[in-house]
Amino acid sequence: MTAQQLSTALDERQLEQFDRLGYLILPGLLPGHLVDALRPEVDRWVDEGLRARSIQSCVEPQRYGRPPVLELELPAHGELIAWPAVMDVLSQLMGPRFVFHHLHSDRQAPDLPGKPWHHDYEAGPQVDPEHLMVHTLHYLDGLDDRTSSLVVLPGSHREAVAKTARAHLGTQELPGELVIDDLPPGSTVVLHSGLFHARRRRPGVPGQPRYFVDTSYCQVGSQWPPVKPYWRSMLSRGRELGLDRGEWPELFAERHFTEYSKP
Fold this sequence. Notes:
Layout: H1 12-21, E1 23-26, H2 32-47, H3 50-59, H4 61-64, H5 75-81, H6 84-94, E2 98-108, E3 115-118, E4 133-139, E5 149-152, E6 178-180, E7 187-192, E8 197-200, E9 210-219, H7 231-240
Antiparallel strand pairs: 1-7, 2-9, 3-8, 4-7, 4-9, 5-6, 5-8
Helix pairs in contact: 2-5
């Protein structure tokens, strides 16, 4: 390992855990200065209606077209996509060639309902399990007893089932689940995108907003369906802004995707 020497080395136990259980917990992966830059961008994304506008562009693309601002155009969000520590981890899990899929951020209100059990693997019911899709879930303020919990179902990434196969269960407790509810600021949970997970609200506590940024990547070698109707514009903007840092030439390459099809 030379110019791309890994500064966030995963040990054999972590690599085996990700393969077998489908997740890794990396406390404090993001440095404080990046977290401090991301937080006001999330506020802007929510308070100026940019997040709502982005959702409208996905729901009614013919009416709304490309959003006026893309998340990756927010400086710290763009920086996060190829943040060295994140790239170090991904390259150990996926190899050196992977493509950016999408970015999603939110300031989740304390009274926001939980999100039912689901997975986020985009190639149908895992029709190409040989190729990884990975989600990195960044919790800017961490997780504690004032925020909703992340709940994962270890090993469920090995099931070839639809995203919504467990949605009818809501956020109820499941045998074998793992509750992740105590993380320091700047922590990241790396999920195999086929792993079932849920956001579970804590009842009976006043709570505080949960600052959350999710970046997703796909292993090169398969054709991946995009989730944004303006995906070409998004990848093009990533290239224009040099968000690959000159080190990851596949990161915004369009050839790894199929045409967009509305869900």
